[in-house]
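Handoff note, outgoing to incoming analyst
You'll be picking up this chain. Sequence as last confirmed:
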Amino acid sequence: MAVYYYYRLGSLRALIFCFSVFAFMLSDVLSNFAYYADLFYLFLFVRFFYLAGLILLINYGVSHELREKEDEYNKEA
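Most recent structure output, in case you need it:
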């Protein structure tokens, strides 16, 4: 769904949302892999991708300038 949102609008705000979703997905996959393979050093990467996804999601939600540009683009289309 995030990829469709990006391809539909093509804006920076949509790209930030797409990267945040992929960072959360990668964090979850790495977490499961690290747990079942007993590779505990991978938990460092899990936390990194989780924090990156959280920061990008907060940026997506708080950025008013990007939302206004996106709204202007939607009005034109």
